[in-house]
Specification:
secreted, Growth_fac_rcpt_cys_sf, extracellular matrix, two-stranded antiparallel ribbon, 5 helices, Laminin, Fibrillin 1, Extracellular Matrix Fibrillin
């Protein structure tokens, strides 16, 4: 195999590849591996595809896969791409597989052996297979999760989708928009690639759920502040009542004020409450004072 200017035979490559089955994890967040995949995979199968961490046993701590576009990653995954896929095992001989068939016009230089014991996967020695790697984005389909892979000479780079950013490993990770407190008058909830606002009482979210705006209760509800005037405030409202009315206990309307409950109202007479007002009926020998709030003697000046 022609690899980085060197001719390497298959038996040598088989020594480089760790084919032990292990546990693969597809997410890496804040240094913690998560989302374990159900099927056992080798480190090569895991890290060169969608895996982000790999562990050889259930008891051992997962190790992070090599950072993509590094020499360590190329060493693992370029070798993985050059190795032929494992053929189906013949019935009754699970420990033996037939030799792999080599593509192209490169016939074997020595007679083929009748069988090869797994996992060497070694073809007849000294077979040279030239391979030209120019586009890592096509060779490895899962290089830039949450982003777009852009090939570069001998490598690649990731252009992240909206709501994601490059981390130190060159991968696209979620941006926590809530750190910038975008939800004034609400609580921010971070989501993958975005966020949403849970608005407080008196506010409503925009169609995109990324902002909280004041509800104008005076316009939204025509039955508010009856017998008064509605004043909208930030996140609420209040009523300015007409003369003879007072704000109700719920604060949403104006109700009649019973002036007859005021001490000495309609003195020397009888107080009669009316909607928004009252009137005094004076006793005989008394007449209503000019302010209409009490009765005075007819001979009193």
């Amino acid at each position: 195999i022609f690899l980085f200017g060197l001719i390497i035979t298959y038996p040598f490559l088989s020594l480089l590849v760790d084919v032990r089955p292990g546990y693969c994890f597809s997410t890496l967040t804040n240094g913690r591996c998560g989302n374990q995949l159900p099927q056992p995979l080798s480190k090569m199968q895991c890290c060169c595809d969608s895996g982000r961490c790999w562990s050889s046993t259930a008891a051992s701590a997962p190790e992070m896969c090599p950072i993509r576009s590094t020499d360590e990653y190329r060493k693992l995954c370029t070798v993985a791409a050059l190795l032929p896929a494992r053929p189906e095992l013949p019935p009754g001989r699970p420990e033996v597989i037939p030799p792999p068939l080599l593509p192209g016009p490169y016939p074997p230089l020595v007679p083929q052996q009748p069988e090869i014991v797994y996992p060497s996967r070694a073809p007849p020695p000294h077979v040279i297979l030239p391979v030209n790697f120019t586009d890592y984005c096509q060779l490895f389909r899962h290089l830039c999760l949450n982003g777009h892979c852009i090939p570069t000479p001998g490598s690649y780079r990731c252009k992240c989708n909206k709501g994601f950013q490059l981390d130190v490993r060159g991968e696209c990770i979620d941006v926590d928009e809530c750190e910038k407190n975008p939800c004034i008058s609400g609580d921010c909830v971070n989501t993958q690639g975005s966020y949403m606002c849970q608005c407080r009482i008196g506010y409503q979210s925009t169609p995109t759920r990324t902002e909280c705006r004041d509800i104008d209760e005076c316009l939204q509800n025509g039955r508010i502040c009856n017998n008064g005037r509605c004043i909208n405030t930030d996140g609420s409202f209040h009523c300015v009542c007409n003369a003879g009315f007072q704000v109700a206990a719920d604060g949403k309307n104006c109700e009649d004020m019973d002036e007859c409950n005021i001490r000495n109202m309609c003195l020397n007479g009888m107080c009669i409450n009316e909607d928004g007002s009252f009137k005094c009926i004076c006793k005989p020998g008394f007449q209503l004072a000019s302010d209409g709030r009490y009765c005075r003697g007819k001979h009193n000046k």
